[in-house]
Amino acid sequence: MSVLILVEHDNEEVKASTLNTVTAACEVSDDLHALVIGFNCNAVVSAACNIDGVSKVIKCDSEAYQYGLAENVAPVVKDLAESYSHVFAPASTFGKNLMPRVAAMLDVQQVSDISEILSEDTFVRPIYAGNALATVRSTDSVKLITVRTTAFDAASEEGGAAPIEEITSTGDVGLSNFVRHDLTRSERPELTTASIVISGGRGMQSGENFNMLERVADKLGAAVGASRAAVDAGYVPNDYQVGQTGKVVAPDLYIAVGISGAIQHLAGMKDSKVIVAINKDEEAPIFQVADFGWVADLFNAVPELEAALD
Amino acid sequence: MKVVVPVKRVIDANIKVRVKADRSGVELNNVKMAMNPFCEIAVEESIRMKESGAAEEIVVVAAGPQQSQETIRTALAMGADRGILIQTDVPLEPLAVSKLLKSVIEREGPGLVVMGKQAVDNDNNQTGQMLSAKLNWSLGTFVSKIEIKDDSFEVVREVDGGLETVSLSKPSVITVDLRLNEPRYASLPNIMKARRKPIETLTPDELGVDVTPRIEVVEVNEPPNRQAGIKVSSAAELIEKLRDEAKVLA
Ligand SMILES: Cc1cc2nc3c(=O)[nH]c(=O)nc-3n(C[C@H](O)[C@H](O)[C@H](O)COP(=O)(O)OP(=O)(O)OC[C@H]3O[C@@H](n4cnc5c(N)ncnc54)[C@H](O)[C@@H]3O)c2cc1C
Ligand SMILES: Nc1ncnc2c1ncn2[C@@H]1O[C@H](COP(=O)(O)O)[C@@H](O)[C@H]1O
Q1: What is the Cα–Cα distance from A167 to B162, expressed in whole angstroms?
Q2: Which domains does chain B show, CATH number per domain?
Q3: CA angle A298-B228-A215, nearest 5°?
Q4: Distance B155 CA to ligand 1 centre (A)
Q5: Atom 20 in ligand 2: which residue has the minimum CA distance?
Q6: Tens digits of pLDDT across chain B (250 residues)
Q7: Alpha carbon of B118 to ligand 1 centroid (Å)
Q8: Binding site membership of B39 for ligand 2 (Cβ less than 6 Å)
Q9: Which residue of A has its CA nearest to B137?
Q10: How many CA atoms within 13 Å lie on the side-chain side of B197?
Q11: A98 phi and psi, to 5 degrees?
């Protein structure tokens, strides 16, 4: 029984989400095939060969896959999928966009965003913004799974020596075209993999005030996140959003500043190991999940924190 | 251009759900239901297209129990033109919904399907992607901006790394993210007017679609509960706790 893993990458590097997906897939099989679909993606293929646990890397290289458009990529996955027991992808925007298109082509009901594997066909997944955990059993012959990456450790990037198999491309199906990227560049660690995250909410009052959090983040080696209210108000870009409909994070330390703690926000951070909340309203729901609560005006507390970290 | 907007009836997003004592699911009795927030955004966008002259007719489609009519009425009161209810009491999975929608869409022949990126009950985030595959149409997911061009839709997608712009050939399935627009509230006169707008009722059988679930729900549990911890009153105290007690700072 072999498992196919969809490698998330940018034609240069394997994304960390792939490593968590490998660990999840290891729980159902020890024959893991990593599928790299891209353009001029040799560096990704080599990196995938080195991942501990991967037994084969399948490479499909064509200009049609440069930007990972689901319309072009899905047929490649579909053609391979039927010879596997499972197909795994991370529940990142990459996996969420692509996997259901493959599932529909195969007439399979995908299982989204699993947080635990109980057996080869039974999985746990959060529903209702994490307010309930459903145990579900898939009856489809091929199981298509997306993985909540924070629920599984990252596989080691070293230790593997998988052989490469090259397959031919099905090409451009001519339904869509890439126009451009406006990606957020940051020197800080990535939100979903950082061991410390400091997030700001509506209480921050402006984008400029996020500089205060960034200074603390730099001292802690932390990533910066935000609530939806802060993103909607335009303080920070959309990819900062933590929550049910944004990113799910589970760092060792999560510091929520000026965030009330709505269920949709908690859905994205309540599996963090230690939660700190700074809020001037002692009734704020965020304190119900915080290990350390500090009732204070953030405009005093955050500078004090920054100074104390010297 | 005709626009089809699939809408789902879910527990109101502001309500904290409770898991049933027998662990068979979450409590739906006497719980306030509403239109899935992402579907509201899709309805709003279609109405703006009609107001700008880009769309001629907006058809909303809901699959589910009889009460899903209320969700359709809400969309009609916002400004959609007519509704289709695909009535069934079978719990529907995204694959089944995508098949039901496909058959209705093939009959209606819209130039665009705009729908939510995710239903906030099961958090599946699948139906639009599946529908696009079933129709073999272009797909734009997690969209926060739609520009209608002569023979394409140019959409901005919210992806993990930031934003991505893609051009989709027509017809297309687009799933919407929160920042696309702010949905309007229906005015009282429009709520009255919506009562006279037509809703057609169909069944999965009539559409020839097998909706038998593929996934068995074994049980549904409460997540582990986090306990509130302690209060601190200074940065020095906080840092000391994080270093010495929680051991999350070096
Ligand atoms: C379908 C749907 C999906 C959603 N998805 C998400 C999601 O993914 N992520 C998400 O975050 N939200 C999401 N939301 C929104 C969510 O419901 C809340 O509206 C949002 O999280 C609130 O953000 P906030 O806590 O920053 O703002 P508010 O609720 O306004 O809270 C601001 C807090 O700041 C505090 N404050 C103000 N000034 C200061 C000060 N000077 N010092 C200290 N504290 C101060 C206040 O006491 C208050 O508690 C979603 C909502 C819906 C309906
Ligand atoms: N039963 C349904 N009836 C109509 N539309 C639906 C139904 N279920 C899902 N959808 C549509 O699909 C979107 C995504 O839902 P999901 O894939 O379940 O997360 C929703 O926002 C709706 O637009």
Answers
A1: 31
A2: 2-225 (3.40.50.620)
A3: 30
A4: 27
A5: B116
A6: 999 999 999 999 989 899 999 999 999 989 999 999 999 999 999 999 999 999 999 999 999 999 999 999 999 999 999 999 999 999 999 999 999 999 999 999 999 999 999 999 999 999 999 999 999 999 999 999 999 999 999 999 999 999 999 999 999 999 999 999 999 999 999 999 999 999 999 999 999 999 999 999 999 999 998 888 999 999 999 999 999 999 999 8
A7: 20
A8: yes
A9: A175
A10: 24
A11: -85, -45
Q: For residue B99, which ligand has an atom nearest its CA?
A: 2
Residues of A numbered 219-238 whose beta carbons fall under 8 angstroms of chain B's beta carbons: which are they? 220, 228, 231-232, 237-238
Q: Which ligand is nearest to the CA of B62?
A: 2
Residue carrying structure tokens 């700008």: B52
Mutate to test the interface with A, among B19, B20, B125, B220 (most CBs of A within 10 A): B125
Q: Is the dihedral of CA B114, B119, B125, B129 positive or negative?
A: negative
Which residue of chain B is at minimal alpha-carbon distance from A295? B233
| Structural tokens at position B101 | 């929608």
Predicted-complex ipTM score: 0.95
**Measuring CA to CA, which residue among B108, B110, B119, B177 is closest to residue B137?**
B110
Radius of gyration, alpha carbons of chain B:
21
Among residues B56, B90, B94, which one has the least CA distance to residue B175? B94
